[in-house]
Amino acid sequence: MIGMRIDAYDGASAATQVGIVHAVYASQYPPGTPIDEWREGIWSAHRSREGFDLLIAREGDEVAGLVWGYVGERGQFWTDLAAASLAEDVADAWLGGHFEVVELIVLPAYRRRGLGAALLARILERSDRPRALLSVADTNVPARALYASMGWVVLGPLGARSSVMGIAPCLEAGPI
């Protein structure tokens, strides 16, 4: 990670990064939502949430990866989806007031250099929440291995092809 810098943006300042974030996001989920629709929809909603945090890693002028998240609460799409998918006792213990890692993307040219772990560790350090959650596709073996190596545990399924993973660095909680 020599020569890499990580810049942080809150909800307001992240608005200036919409083109960069959308391009990285769309590169991982092609063809991607048109930028105007994405900016006024998902991006605007996410940036307005409590605790929103965006980190962008750059090597020189090149974007290498990014991560963003916010405080997840009942009544939000992903939290409600997870609540419907997880066992009730697990949902009650983990959902609501958690830090929700929405996206962690490292561009292909920068993978296998520790950047994903660095971005994930940094965003969690910046959060004051006692637990964090994310979802990961069951087929995404590299991401699942990264999360497990950092102490994340599978809490249960999220639909038919993904899992909810959590970490509670401030709690003495093991796998549920």
UniProtKB/TrEMBL annotation:
Keywords: Acyltransferase, Transferase. It comes from the Bacteria. Residues 4-176 form the N-acetyltransferase domain. Coiled coil: none annotated. InterPro entries: Acyl_CoA_acyltransferase, Bact_Acetyltransf, GNAT_dom. It holds the Pfam family Acetyltransf_1. The keyword Phosphoprotein does not apply. The keyword Lipid metabolism does not apply. PANTHER family: AMINOALKYLPHOSPHONATE N-ACETYLTRANSFERASE-RELATED-RELATED, BLL8307 PROTEIN. This is GNAT family N-acetyltransferase. It comes from Microbacterium flavum. The lineage of its organism: Bacteria, Bacillati, Actinomycetota, Actinomycetes, Micrococcales.
